[in-house]
Design brief:
The chain is of the alpha+beta class. The chain is built from two helices and seven strands, in the order αβββαββββ. Strand 6 and strand 7 (115-126) form a beta hairpin. The longest helix has 15 residues, at 68-82. The chain starts with a helix and ends with a strand.
Amino acid sequence: MLLSEIREYLKTKIDSPQWYLNKVGDKEESITIYNTTGSAPRIALGGLEQTSYTTKAISILVHWGKDSNKAELKAQEVYNAFFGQDGTIGGKRVIQFKMKTDSPVYVGTDTEGIIEYVIETIIYYER
């Protein structure tokens, strides 16, 4: 599963003027998706052929203006696009989005005063 496939999935659920992969852009309102550290790969007894699912760990940065309420609302909207949901990403059926926190995590502001939140999840999906 690629970050670009996750971005395309999110674009069907979330409205954002700008999307980035692995870097923060210069727009005042944007969403960036990063690869992050997840759990070690799991292989079932019997080998890879018997392994039915795998995982992809991601971190999402919601970089959203200077209005605290709007930034928090957008971060919660992104969180809700994953929490308790299922779907298909890149042709793979998602089994579960395992959220790492109970809500988006406020991480402060950038040097321009833009408010930022982080959402982390591990995507469990069929191989």
